[in-house]
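Record 1 of the preview.
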Amino acid sequence: MSGAVRFGDVEFDPLAGELRRGPETTRLEPQPARVLALLVERAGEVVTREELQQRVWSGDTFVDFERGLNYCIAQIRAALGDSASDPRFVETLPRRGYRFIAPIQGPAPATVTRPRPWIAIAATAATLLAVAAVAWLLFARNTATRTPRDARVHIAVVPFDNETGVADYDRLAQTLTDATVARLAGQADRLAVVGNAAVLYKPRNFRDLLAIGSSLGVSHVVLGQVQEIGGQLRVTAHLIRVGDQAHVWAHRFEPSAADTPKLDQQVSGAVAEAVTTFLLAKS
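->
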């Protein structure tokens, strides 16, 4: 899907990953944008979770697909002002997938003219030659510029630890983890992200970063804590180099109550920026 489409009072540009409503523009993250593009392309049809996994997620990206997809759908609904219980755009079909239900206002169909037979044959031959030439050029360019798998930065995301002792914060810790995995996995051409391996779920007292690095083949890990200090919520995220277990980057977030709903985006965005600055810029 390449051109912008309209549905309701929204215009969606899949190439830019932007939703425009009047003067307001909302830019989606890469993976939510690709999920929405596929749903819009198949508007009115059920798009199964398996199809979304094959089309949107890289086959060699180690990521918890279920959490990543749930995160993408939540971001799409938030951007559209949609609701899972009373959907106007994206309908959930339990255990099956999703369906885009808003009418699409597409471009008018092109006028079809009937060419003379010899012209049609010549045009078809020319088209086939052009397609073959373009395919060869793309293949040659991709072969020359494709980043080898070994050149990617391999990184693991350890589930954020809820250190508050309050069970209600378990969901926040999981949401922060899912958002971070999804944000990093959006750069699958430069990052190989491990987000659901069993070794990552060991309790903090038994966590061995060297064991994580050797078993998963990662050079860095992201981990974090959710704490409550004097009634103030605090989240700390860390980027650690496995080899010497040195901190490459760390940041503390102390959101207000009004900032909490967007905390997952704030934290995952900061982690992604740190990875780009300290790892990808040097690779």
